[in-house]
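Whiteboard transcription, Tuesday session. T.W. wrote the C-alpha cells on the left side:
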C-alpha cells in the first residue's frame, strides 16, 4: 500500500519517470531510431518529435511483428497480441503485448486492485475462496511457432503465474472456450460447487451466467449458492443499467468495483466502492496525455498533461506504453471526477458508438451494414438512429433502430435479417454477443415516415446547417424523444 500511496500522491513525477523509462528502453528500436529517442530529454521534445498515432498508423509495424520481426516498436520480444474490435474498416485490431506490459502493467495493476480492496475492507475473506473469471470469446490462435493472439482475457490467462490457478475458477480449458452457449453451461456446472468469493467479467455475460446458475440450482438468490461471495469486478461497459439486476440476483449486500482494463493497458480502477470514478494508475508502464475533444481530428492536435486537466471536461486518452504503442489514441473519452487524487470515468468514444453490452458498434460499422442491407433488399435509407435496449428481468438486451426509408423494403423482417447479418460480418464483438441470442437479441426496427427526423430536429431548434441525426448513441435519450414525438 505504501508503494501505491507513493504514485497516488506524486502522480506527475511518476508519469515523468515512466516516460523516461519508455524512451530509454526503446531508443535503439526501429521506431526509436526513426524519431531519435536518444536525443529526447523532456516531455515537450517527446511530443514535438512524435505525431499522434491511430491504429492504422502503427499497423505496418504490427504486421511485421506478427510475421516474426522484432525490435521494431519495443526492445524486448513481442510474442503475444491482444485481439480487440476494430473501429474503422478493420474487423479486429491486434495490440502488441510485451512481457513488461503484462508484468508491470496488467498483473501489477491487478495486485494493486486487491491491495486497495483490503485497505478499505481489512476483514475481507476474499482470498479464502476463489475468483470466478468470465473470460472473453476467443481462443488462443497461433500465428507461428512463437507468436500467438487471443482476446485480452485469453492472453492474460495463458500468461498468468502458476499460483494464479490456485485462486481462480474455472480451469483454463473452460475459461478459454470459444463457443458461448457451451461455455456458459460448463461455467455454471463447474463453479456451483466452488467457494466463490469474487466474480470478474463484463456485466452482459455475467448476468447470463448467474441466471443459468439459479435455474440449475433452483435457488432464489446467488447468496444461497455462494454465501461467501463479496465482490464483483466489472468493466468494459457502463454498469448503471445493470446494477439493479445484480442487486436483485445477489440477495445480499455486495461490493461493486469498476476497472478500466483494455487491450492497450490497465489504466484505472476504483480504490473503494464509494469513490466517484476510478483511481488513475500512473506507475504501470503507461505515459498518458489528454487531448481536449475539440482537438480530435486536427492535423496537429494539442494534448495536455495531468497538471493541466480540468474536472468534468471530456478528453481523448493518448498513451505511450511498454508494449510499443507511441502517442496512440485509444479512442476512449474520459472525464476527471477528482484531481486529488486523479480519478476518472470513461465517458464514451471519440466517435458515436453503442457499447452497452461490450459489442463496440461504431458508426462506420453501422453505415456499412445499412448500405449492405439496402443492396440486398433493394431499399434506400434516408437516415437512421439506434440505441440499446437494456436487460429486463426476463429478457436479454438488443438494439432498437429508427429508420427513415426513401424506398421501403417489401418485408421489414428481411431487411432486419440482412442488417443483423452485415453487422456480424463487420464486427467480431457484435457477432459474439449475438451468438444464439445469448446476450443480444435480433435488432428491433421501427419505420419512420419521411420527415419525422426533420420534425425532431426542428423541435430541438437544430434543423439545417451542420446539425445531424445522432446515428448511434449509448443511451436512450435521443431515441425516446423521437419515439415520443411520432407516438410509437
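and on the right, the sequence the group agreed on:
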Amino acid at each position: 500500500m505504501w508503494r501505491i500511496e507513493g504514485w497516488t500522491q506524486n502522480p506527475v513525477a511518476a508519469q515523468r519517470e515512466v516516460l523516461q523509462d519508455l524512451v530509454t528502453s526503446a531508443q535503439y528500436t526501429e521506431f526509436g531510431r526513426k524519431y531519435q529517442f536518444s536525443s529526447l530529454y523532456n516531455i515537450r521534445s517527446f511530443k514535438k518529435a512524435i505525431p499522434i498515432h491511430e491504429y492504422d498508423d502503427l499497423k505496418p509495424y504490427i504486421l511485421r511483428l506478427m510475421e516474426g520481426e522484432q525490435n521494431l516498436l519495443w526492445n524486448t520480444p513481442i510474442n503475444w497480441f491482444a485481439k480487440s474490435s476494430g473501429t474503422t474498416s478493420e474487423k479486429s485490431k491486434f495490440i502488441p503485448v510485451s512481457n513488461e506490459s503484462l508484468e508491470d502493467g496488467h498483473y501489477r495493476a491487478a495486485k494493486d486492485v486487491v491491495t486497495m480492496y483490503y485497505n478499505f475492507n481489512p476483514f475481507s475473506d476474499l482470498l479464502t475462496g476463489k475468483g470466478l473469471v468470465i473470460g472473453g470469446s476467443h481462443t488462443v490462435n497461433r500465428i507461428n511457432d512463437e507468436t500467438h493472439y487471443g482476446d485480452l482475457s485469453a492472453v492474460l490467462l495463458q500468461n498468468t503465474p502458476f499460483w494464479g490457478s490456485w485462486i481462480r475458477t474455472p480451469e483454463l480449458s473452460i475459461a478459454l472456450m470459444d463457443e458461448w452457449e457451451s461455455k456458459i453451461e460448463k461455467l455454471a456446472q463447474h463453479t456451483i460447487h466452488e467457494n466463490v468469493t469474487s466474480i470478474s467479467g463484463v456485466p452482459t455475460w455475467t448476468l447470463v451466467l448467474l441466471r443459468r446458475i439459479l435455474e440449475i440450482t433452483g435457488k432464489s438468490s446467488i447468496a444461497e449458492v455462494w454465501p461467501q461471495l463479496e465482490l464483483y469486478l466489472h468493466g468494459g461497459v457502463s454498469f448503471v443499467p445493470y446494477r439493479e439486476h445484480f442487486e436483485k440476483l445477489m440477495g445480499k449486500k455486495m461490493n461493486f468495483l469498476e476497472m478500466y482494463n483494455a487491450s492497450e493497458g490497465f489504466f484505472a480502477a476504483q480504490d473503494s466502492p464509494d469513490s466517484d470514478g476510478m483511481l488513475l494508475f500512473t506507475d504501470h508502464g503507461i505515459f498518458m496525455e489528454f487531448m481536449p475533444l475539440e482537438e480530435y481530428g486536427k492535423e496537429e492536435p494539442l494534448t495536455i498533461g495531468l497538471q493541466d486537466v480540468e474536472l468534468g471536461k471530456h478528453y481523448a486518452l493518448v498513451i505511450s506504453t511498454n508494449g510499443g504503442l507511441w502517442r496512440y489514441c485509444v479512442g476512449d473519452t474520459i472525464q476527471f471526477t477528482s484531481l486529488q487524487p486523479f480519478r476518472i470515468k470513461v465517458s464514451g468514444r471519440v466517435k458515436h458508438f453503442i457499447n452497452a453490452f461490450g459489442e463496440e458498434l461504431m458508426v462506420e460499422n453501422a453505415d456499412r451494414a445499412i448500405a449492405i442491407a439496402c443492396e440486398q433488399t433493394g431499399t434506400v435509407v434516408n437516415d437512421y438512429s439506434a440505441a440499446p435496449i437494456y436487460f429486463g428481468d426476463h429478457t436479454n438486451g438488443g438494439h432498437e433502430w429508427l429508420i427513415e426509408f426513401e424506398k421501403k423494403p417489401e418485408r421489414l423482417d428481411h431487411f432486419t435479417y440482412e442488417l443483423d447479418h452485415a453487422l456480424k460480418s463487420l464486427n467480431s464483438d457484435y457477432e459474439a454477443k449475438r451468438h444464439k441470442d445469448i446476450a443480444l437479441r435480433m435488432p428491433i426496427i421501427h419505420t419512420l415516415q419521411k420527415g419525422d427526423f426533420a420534425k425532431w430536429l426542428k423541435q430541438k431548434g437544430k434543423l439545417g446547417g451542420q446539425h445531424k441525426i445522432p446515428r448511434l448513441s449509448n443511451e436512450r435519450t435521443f431515441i425516446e424523444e423521437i419515439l415520443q414525438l411520432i407516438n410509437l
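Someone added at the bottom: Residues 86-90, 463-467 have pLDDT under 50 and may be disordered.
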